[in-house]
Amino acid sequence: MRSNWTDREATGLDPLALRVYSSRLLGSESSLVLYGGGNTSVKHEMEDEAGGVVRVLSIKGSGTDLATIDVGGFSPLALDPLVRLRTRSSMADDLMVELVARALLNTVAPRPSIETLLHAFIPLDWVDHSHADAILALTNQPSGQAVVRDVFAEDVGIVPYIKPGFLLSKAAADVYDNDPSVVGLILENHGLVTFGESARESYERHIELVSRAENSIRKVWKTPPAGRQRTSRVAAGLATRLRGQLSIRNRMILRFDGASRVRQFVDRDDVDEISQKGPVTPDHILRTKQLPMVLHGSETVDIVREINNYEDQYRGYVARCGGDASSFMHDPFPRVILAPGIGMFSTGRTASEADKVGEIYRHTMDVIEAASAIDRYQALPERDLYEIEYWPLELYKLMHGPADRELAGRVAAVTGAASGIGKSVARRLAADGAHVFVTDIDVVRAEQVAEGIRNDGGVAESMGLDVTDQKSISAAFRKMVLGTGGLDIVVSNAGRAEASAIHKLTLAAWNRSFDINATGHFLVLSEAVRWLRNQDLGGNLVLVCTKNTFDPGRDFGAYSAAKAAELQLGRVLAIENGEHNIRVNMVNPDAVFEESKLWSKKIREGRAAAHGVPIGKLENYYKDRNLLRTKITGTEVAEAVFFLASDRSAATTGAVIPVDGGVTGAFPR
Ligand SMILES: [Zn+2]
Description:
The mean pLDDT is 93. Helix 6 (133-139) packs across helix 9 (199-218) and helix 18 (420-431) crosses helix 25 (634-645). The protein is built from 25 helices and 18 strands. Helix content is 44%, strand content 14%. The termini are far apart. It is elongated and about 100 Å long. The strands form 3 sheets. It has a 7-stranded mixed β-sheet with strand order 3-2-1-4-7-6-5, with helices on both faces. Strands 14-13-12-15-16-17-18 form a 7-stranded parallel β-sheet, with helices on both faces. It has a 4-stranded mixed β-sheet with strand order 8-11-10-9. By secondary structure, the chain is an alpha/beta fold. It has 3 domains: 7-218, 3-Layer(aba) Sandwich (L-fuculose-1-phosphate Aldolase); 233-397, Class II aldolase/adducin N-terminal domain (L-fuculose-1-phosphate Aldolase, 3-Layer(aba) Sandwich), CATH 3.40.225.10; 411-597 and 634-660, NAD(P)-binding Rossmann-like Domain (Rossmann fold, 3-Layer(aba) Sandwich). Zinc ion binds next to loops.
């Protein structure tokens, strides 16, 4: 590992800005810290309200991330009252949190790190702490102390494993006091602390110690490259079956990783043994659980039984460690699933949470393999893991997220979503928390829609999908399933207008309309139903039809006939899939012009002629012919789709909702 320090960037910065600078240097190395792990601090002086000077410890706030931290991510604390706490022999966690909070000099600062006192008790101004992979590979051994001494001789102090908090802070400071010539402290099964008179000294000591650990590991083991991602139909099938079972209480998102590096680990002969020893640091347990699930025999495996076994194992661990005190239990489902021959699945309530779990486990693979190459990988006893997993101070980290939205954990695919109604629907579903696939034949515009959703804080991915091409459809569905584990909502929307009187209609135009407006829905929805049945979680299909299906107009035969076929297709799908709790419903909009690709100039001209109105008055014509005298926009259609796609319509299937402002001729019948 190289130092990324550059004087050009660091000179002239005040202590806090400098603290931000070198914290981000640490945070940018994923083999040092992951997602909120690690912390840094600086001791400096500040003027108080009375014009006096107060000694301040500015420490990373809990829940902030070193990679992106800013000045506001640090909590300023009065240093002296914290230092005085070291004279106590013990302190309950609640009291520690209370006393640290009382020292806060800024009431709107984030909650200080739970490792605050460790930073306070080290007398040097700059302190850097990480959970470096290479350090963990050295300490997580039966003979960890000897391995650490072998690599670092007397340059570091070794602090035996203690749960973070008052006692660890005191023990670390005692080890330092015992030999202040050390440049760092190795916290067993936890990580590395370095310190210095300057930001640069503390940071570079950190990099130097980690490099020495890496060099010693490199003699016996090399980090494998990530390699090629391999996906397959079998992996996708397994993903949906897993998601179906893991989402019975709460919908989960599954991410698949089939990279060569991952496959090399899951294909090890000893994967059942080596993966079941425990996490590399207790800090990871809240995201990954204490153990991954290993799933052999992907196509034949009895997933229900395997998950039950995992659940029993987890309950056993909680019962053994928590005893009668364990009134609360996290859900007993795995977060990491290793499938030999296939790859790894990671789970979370959101794709980004599942990605974090996957990333942590990829580092876990490195540490386990490096430690095994040195001697033998050994994790902490399960009681120590339990203590962290059920520690109120750690749970705090997980609790500051926003409350779940209505479609949280749901996966939705919308066809023809690059414009018009499809775009409005994609935005509406994302606004309520769905993970949305914006699919369209126009990939560029689909990506623009997805980007817009992401900019508004939603989750969306774009995907090319041609509803007339079965290959394109099955490839897109496989990709979606491997990206999220499955599907909950499919909105079949893509459509195309063909205007002509029937006696003048060409066969080509007739076929074009049927290819998209009838067969396109058949291809998309039949594919969707296969995945939904395989997943076995129910589901929602919504077909965007048209007011024309009940109330056709002249010169619109190819369109109206194909859309009528679509409506009938939806009804039969509802009949066939009710027993699988797959609901199928339709919306019948009338004339949505807004941002629509369907209303090309040619179609406008054709419809204006058919209705005998000037083209400039066409939109008003549609508005004036409905009972509410209202212009229909994508927003109203999307609202109806949202109702049908959510649990709000749990007792409705085979239904048609008109969104046409009230056209009596189009009342459903
Ligand atoms: Zn730590």
